[in-house]
Amino acid sequence: MSIEVKGVTKRFGDFVALEDVNVSIPTGQLTALLGPSGGGKSTLLRVIAGLESADSGTIEIEGVDATRLAPQKRNVGFVFQHYAAFKHMTVAKNVAFGLEIRKKPKEEIRDRVHELLKLVHLDQFAHRLPSQLSGGQRQRMALARALAVEPSVLLLDEPFGALDAKVRKELRDWLRRLHDEVHVTTVFVTHDQEEALEVSDEIVVINNGRVEQVGTPDQLYDEPANDFVMSFLGEVTTLGGQAIRPHDIEVSTSPLLDRAVEGTVARILRIGFEVRLTVHTLDGEEVHVQLTRTLANGLGVREGGTVWLTPLAGATIMPTTASVGGHART
C-alpha cells in the first residue's frame, strides 16, 4: 500500500477532528476524501502531509514510517485551494522553485519545467506572471509545481473550490486525464459529491472525524453503509417510510400495483431535460421525484393531478432516521 493510516486521532483542544481513523490507499490510485465541512477530511490530508501531527496513530508512505518525519522528507506534493503562487515569479520560475532549492542542475531544471508546462498545457505562458493567468490556469501551474519534484504522493486540498462551476468541471476532466498519464498516487479533499463520483477510483467518506465508508464510487452510491453515506452521495427522499433516491421512483397515473403509494402532484419544476415533482401522499409524506422531460410529458403529469409512486426494481432503499430528509446534504 502507498499510504497506510493506522489509528490516527487528532484533537484541537476539546474538539475531536479525527478519531481512530484507519485508511489504506493503494499505490497509483486517485482517492477522494469526501465529507461535510468540519468533518475532518482536510485535517487527515494535513496529517498525511506532515503539516499537522497526530496525537496518536501512525502514517506510512511507501512502506516508510512517516509519522515523525518533517513534511519536506515525506516526498509529497501539496496543492492548496488558493494556489499559494509566488506572485513576483514567472510561471516557469514558480514550477522550477522546488527543483532549485534542491540544487538540481540548471539543464535538468529547464528540461523538467518545459516537460511539465507542456503536460499541463501552459508551455505558451511560461514567461507570464501568475496574475496574468486565469484561475484554472493558476491551478494547473500549482499542480505542475507540485509534480516537479517527482513526489511519490500528490495531495490536493479542495483544489477547485475557488473556481466557478464551468471551470471546475473542465479541471475535473483534466485532473483525471493527468492522473492517468503520470500515475502518481493522488489524494484530494472535496465536499462536492459529483466531483468525487466523477474523478476518483475510490472514495473515503469522513464525517465527525470518523470514516463512514470506503469504496468505489459505484459501491458507495449503490450500496451505502448507512443513511449518512446514502444522503451525502446524491439526493434522497422518503417513500413509504423508507429512504430512496428520487430517480428510483416509478410514476404512474393509474394504480397498477397494490403497493403503489397514492399522492397529489403539488409542484412541477423543469430544469433542462429533467422534471422534478413534489408529491404529497395520502400518508402525509412529501416525496421528491425526478423524471426525464420526455417521460413526464408522456405521462401527462400536472399540478393537482393524482399519481401513484412505486420503487423501481433494484432501487437502493434504506430505513429512514432523523438524518435523512427530503433533500441531499451539501
Automatic annotation (TrEMBL):
InterPro entries: AAA+_ATPase (IPR003593), ABC_SmlMolc_Importer (IPR050093), ABC_transporter-like_ATP-bd (IPR003439), ABC_transporter-like_CS (IPR017871), Mo/tungstate-bd_C_term_dom (IPR008995), P-loop_NTPase (IPR027417), Sulph_transpt1 (IPR005666), TOBE-like (IPR024765). CDD domains: ABC_CysA_sulfate_importer (cd03296). It holds the Pfam family ABC_tran. Transmembrane segments: none annotated. Keywords: ATP-binding, Cell membrane, Membrane, Nucleotide-binding, Sulfate transport, Translocase, Transport. Residues 3-233 form the ABC transporter domain. One of its GO terms (molecular function) is ATP binding. NCBIfam families: 3a0106s01. PANTHER family: SPERMIDINE/PUTRESCINE IMPORT ATP-BINDING PROTEIN POTA, SPERMIDINE_PUTRESCINE IMPORT ATP-BINDING PROTEIN POTA. This is Sulfate/thiosulfate import ATP-binding protein CysA. The lineage of its organism: Bacteria, Bacillati, Actinomycetota, Actinomycetes, Propionibacteriales.
